[in-house]
């Protein structure tokens, strides 16, 4: 489900650049430069994704929300807030990272596979943050063997029998009931060679990573839809004045009827 030959070719170039990220570099051989398209100009795809492929680690989060800042109804129904172009975009993001992280709420509500199905690309390692081990063991990511799955729980949690293909990781939670510190999660991932991280949702999980100041980028896709109730997108530590608001640098792209806001932070 991609947009024709030009887009397919651009995506292939992006995937090739992504593959080269893991290769040893020879100084001066040009392997650290992004590959340019033959005609010298960047397509929208390259404008969106090539900035994600510069060397070093990456922590990017994404949310698809209504105009009034909701990511799901109050019952947790979220298929789909944003349109088909944003679904393809999400699969492209998955293909460009080593690992994709979701919170327990998303694992419970959506039973997501977190695989790359809409475009060519490799499946990332799946991670679920679930301190009290409340995610039911019948989730698809625990059984489908389509990619490794890491299940983060607290030292006190009792997850019961751990399904094959799932690695259980115990991590201390913070003292104030705010869960694992995102930096501890990232350290545990980097220790496994997982340096390129997509925090896919939901709102609570993305908010914690943003509040912890560990995000390099946040992709928020806004759909022309009003819910007026439901699960909130971002909920951050309150501020009293507008000059205390975060004002990251921002680029915008059209994704069908939706608008993608590509926010860049300096963690
Ligand atoms: N539109 C979108 O882009 C999008 C994307 C993903 C999901 N969704 C929807 O969003 C809804 C779920 O979102 P949500 O905000 O309610 O929940 P969520 O972020 O998926 O999960 C939140 C829960 O995950 C655990 N968790 C998250 N971060 C943690 C951390 N740093 N340390 C420890 N535990 C952590 C906690 O579990 P405990 O409470 O057990 O401590 C927390 O309450 C679903 O309805 C889903 O369909 C929408």
What does this structure look like?
By secondary structure, the chain is α/β, with parallel strands linked by helices. The chain has a single domain (about 60-230, about 250-265), classed as Dihydrofolate Reductase, subunit A. About 20% of the residues lie in helices and about 25% in strands. It has helices at about 5-20, 45-50, 85-95, 105-110, 180-190, 205-210; strands spanning about 60-65, 70, 100-105, 125-130, 150-155, 165-170, 195-200, 215-225, 230, 250-255, 260-265. Strands 6-5-4-3-7-1-8-11-10 form a nine-stranded mixed sheet, with helices on both faces. Strands 2-9 form a two-stranded antiparallel sheet. The longest helix has 17 residues, at about 5-20. Mean pLDDT is about 90; it is low at about 25-40. The chain binds NADP nicotinamide-adenine-dinucleotide phosphate (NAP).
Topology:
Layout: H1 5-21, H2 44-49, E1 58-66, E2 70-72, H3 84-95, E3 99-103, H4 104-110, E4 125-129, E5 149-153, E6 166-170, H5 182-190, E7 196-201, H6 203-211, E8 217-223, E9 231-232, E10 249-255, E11 258-264
The structure holds NADP nicotinamide-adenine-dinucleotide phosphate (NAP).
Uncertain parts: 25-38
Mean pLDDT: 92
Radius of gyration: 19 Å
Q: How helix-rich are the residues, as a percent range?
A: 10-25%
Structural class: alpha/beta
The number of helical runs is 6
CATH-defined superfamily: Dihydrofolate Reductase, subunit A
What composes the largest sheet?
9 strands, mixed
User: What small molecules accompany the polymer chains?
Assistant: NADP nicotinamide-adenine-dinucleotide phosphate
Overall 3D geometry? globular
């Amino acid at each position: 489900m991609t947009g024709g030959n030009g887009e397919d070719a651009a995506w292939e170039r992006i995937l090739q650049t992504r593959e080269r990220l893991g290769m040893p570099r020879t100084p001066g051989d040009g392997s650290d430069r992004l590959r340019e398209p033959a005609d010298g100009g960047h397509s929208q795809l390259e404008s969106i994704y090539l900035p994600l492929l510069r060397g070093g680690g990456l922590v990017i989060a994404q949310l698809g929300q209504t105009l009034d800042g909701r990511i799901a109804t109050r019952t947790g129904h979220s298929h789909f807030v944003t349109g088909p172009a944003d679904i393809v975009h999400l699969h492209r993001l998955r293909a460009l990272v080593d690992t994709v992280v979701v919170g327990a709420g998303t694992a419970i509500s959506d039973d997501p596979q977190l695989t790359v199905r809409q475009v060519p690309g490799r499946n990332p390692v799946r991670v679920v943050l679930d301190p009290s081990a409340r995610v039911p063991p019948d989730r698809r990511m625990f059984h489908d063997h389509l990619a490794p799955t890491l299940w983060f729980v607290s030292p006190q949690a009792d997850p019961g029998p751990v399904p094959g293909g799932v690695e259980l990781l115990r991590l201390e939670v913070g003292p104030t009931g705010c869960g694992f510190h995102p930096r501890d999660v990232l350290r545990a991932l980097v220790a496994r060679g997982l340096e390129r991280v997509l925090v896919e949702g939901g709102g609570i999980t993305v908010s914690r990573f943003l509040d912890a100041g560990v995000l390099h980028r946040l992709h928020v896709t806004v759909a022309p839809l009003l819910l007026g109730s439901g699960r909130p997108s971002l909920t951050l530590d309150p501020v009293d004045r507008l000059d205390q608001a975060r004002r990251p640098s921002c680029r915008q792209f059209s994704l069908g009827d939706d608008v993608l806001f590509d926010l860049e932070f300096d963690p």
